[in-house]
Amino acid sequence: MNALPTIAQSGLQAAQTRLGSSAHNIANQQTDGFKRQTVTSAAAAPGGGVVVSISQAAQTGADLPQDVVDQMSAKHAFVANVQVLKVADRMMGSLLDIKA
């Protein structure tokens, strides 16, 4: 059960990275020669969670619809991971009540 907060925290950090990258792309879409940032996610092997990496797109140009979708997706990921933290906290509290 100790893994739940760690997994949720990695999810929050991944969502923050995705949100920051899409905000960067939107802010710089008018810049000549700008290449979008892309975020890739992968499962973290030893304890669960997620690992993200940022790279640049091969082509120049903006993709505003994709960046807006990325921001909405990051928001939903934030909400989901916060719920996991809340449930883990309630579970731990219930366990402590039973043991006490």
Structural class: alpha+beta
Uncertain runs are none
Number of domains: 1
**What count of helical segments does DSSP give?**
2
Quick structural gist:
The protein is an alpha+beta fold and 100 residues long.
Can you offer a commentary on this structure?
This protein has a two-stranded antiparallel ribbon with strand order 1-2. The protein has one domain (3-99). The protein contains 2 helices and 2 strands. It has helices at 3-27, 64-99, and strands at residues 35-43, 50-60. The model has no long low-confidence stretch (mean pLDDT 89). The protein has 100 residues and is of the alpha+beta class.
Topology summary:
Layout lengths: L2 H25 L7 E9 L6 E11 L3 H36 L1
Antiparallel strand pairs: 1-2
Helix pairs in contact: 1-2
Tag the structure with descriptive keywords.
2 helices; 61% helix; single chain; alpha+beta; 100 residues; elongated; two-stranded antiparallel ribbon
